[in-house]
UniProtKB/TrEMBL annotation:
<dbReference type="InterPro" id="IPR001841">
    <property type="entry name" value="Znf_RING"/>
</dbReference>
<feature type="domain" description="RING-type">
    <location>
        <begin position="12"/>
        <end position="67"/>
    </location>
</feature>
<dbReference type="InterPro" id="IPR027370">
    <property type="entry name" value="Znf-RING_euk"/>
</dbReference>
<dbReference type="InterPro" id="IPR013083">
    <property type="entry name" value="Znf_RING/FYVE/PHD"/>
</dbReference>
<keyword id="KW-0479">Metal-binding</keyword>
<keyword id="KW-0862">Zinc</keyword>
<dbReference type="GO" id="GO:0008270">
    <property type="term" value="F:zinc ion binding"/>
</dbReference>
<dbReference type="InterPro" id="IPR017907">
    <property type="entry name" value="Znf_RING_CS"/>
</dbReference>
<keyword id="KW-0863">Zinc-finger</keyword>
<dbReference type="Pfam" id="PF13445">
    <property type="entry name" value="zf-RING_UBOX"/>
</dbReference>
<protein>
    <recommendedName>
        <fullName>RING-type domain-containing protein</fullName>
    </recommendedName>
</protein>
Length: 244
């Protein structure tokens, strides 16, 4: 499944009307009307509560479209702040900041050709060490998995990248396209067990970040300007969207 929050028809899959106050589920990123998905989540939670004897069980909501298990609804995202409602009232992800929310918005949008990827491969710029790569990987993987502890995944992917870019006996005569294809294939294989349907877009974003040559802050500013949204300030949360 391609990582895309918006439905092609721009209609809510529940009410079949144009999206009103767009909201999306945190794992599959399918979009719905805010009230529709909030009511759906309440219905699902009430149904689960009746079948569970323990009050400590971790509630989730399966997407009405793809049946992916989700744990929260993200809505009222305006480029500066967003609201988030957890299906499980006792669940809190304090690590998920406005920067994470902005990156989620980026993954739901078309990136376009922000930087010259062809020159990155043509002039072997991948040989230059990227001092911000580890922090960027951590933020991206946290955004896509909604998990705080992603160090194992980060080190695994970073190790694959280092093996590709520092391979002994590598010649500068290698043409850019085969090297790029190898990069994308090996990285996809490394990320797929963790990111599943979001893998292809993650590889695109990683390649874009590497080609930019920018630090994380500068990269974000360029990306936000491209999408026409403002830098993050303070995150807003609403604990009960069903009552809004």
């Amino acid at each position: 499944m391609e990582f895309s929050g918006r439905n092609d028809s721009e209609t809510c899959p529940i009410c079949l009307e144009p999206l009103l106050r767009e909201a999306y589920l945190d794992r599959c990123f399918h979009a719905f009307c805010y009230q529709c998905i909030a009511q759906w989540s309440k219905f699902v939670k009430d149904k689960q509560s009746q079948s569970q004897s323990s009050s400590k069980c971790k509630f989730s909501i399966k997407c009405p479209l793809c049946k992916t298990e989700n744990f929260s609804i993200v809505y009222n995202f305006d480029g500066v702040s967003f609201h988030r409602h957890y299906v499980n009232d006792n669940h809190h992800d304090s690590f998920f900041s406005s920067n994470h929310g902005l990156r989620a918005q980026c993954y739901r949008s078309e990136a376009g050709n922000l930087f010259n990827i062809q020159q990155y491969w043509k002039y072997h710029r991948y040989r230059q060490k990227n001092n911000w790569l580890q922090n960027w990987l951590r933020r991206e993987i946290q955004t896509l998995t909604l998990e705080e502890d992603v160090d194992i995944i980060v080190h695994h992917i970073q190790g694959v990248l280092e093996a590709i870019f520092t391979r002994k006996g590598d010649s500068k005569q290698v043409t850019p396209e085969p090297r790029r294809e190898e990069f994308r294939a090996l990285l996809s294989d490394a990320a797929m067990p963790f990111l599943h349907g979001r893998t292809a877009r993650f590889v695109d974003e990683l390649e874009l970040f590497l080609a930019s040559g920018l630090n994380i802050e500068a990269y974000d500013r360029v990306y936000m300007h491209h999408l026409g949204i403002s830098p993050p300030t303070e995150e807003a949360r609403d604990p009960d969207p069903a009552s809004d």
